[in-house]
Amino acid sequence: MTEFDLHVPSPAEARGADRALRALGHDADAPLFVRATGAPGAQDVELPAEARALLLRILGHMANGDAVTIVPVAAEVTAQQAAEILGVSRPFVIRLVDEGKLACRLVGTHRRIPLGDVLAFKQANRAERRAIAAELTAEAQELGFGYK
Prior knowledge:
Strand order of the largest sheet: 3-5-4
Distance between the termini: 51 Å
Mean pLDDT: 86
Number of domains: 2
Strand content: 5-15%
CATH topology of the largest domain: Multidrug-efflux Transporter Regulator, Chain: A, Domain 2
Oligomer: single chain
Shape: extended
CATH class of the largest domain: Mainly Alpha
Helix content: 40-55%
Number of strands: 5
């Protein structure tokens, strides 16, 4: 199982990330080259477009002082880790598993939940909440509750 190596940037690291982000720009289509300056015969290597986009996202979060980690999508998480990702309690995650809303496999008596499933559930839940909020706002506007 992959452990989360969560890194919270220091204020100096956040400033450095902000400078790097500004220097690299926000054009995800522009090529980005890196050079391993300590390696003998170092040469420029172009990063794939997806790697550039991820790097810009990482720098953006770090510049804001957000904690950052990189986890392979194939990773599995514990019920407690899934709860932390979803912002809910561990018993709630276990209920989601028991209801078949999240897949898991048992390792002894411990549940291992695919991280990709947790992230997909979180995204679907967020979209559902936004749709409900939009529906409630529209209904409040129709009823004249002071929304313009």
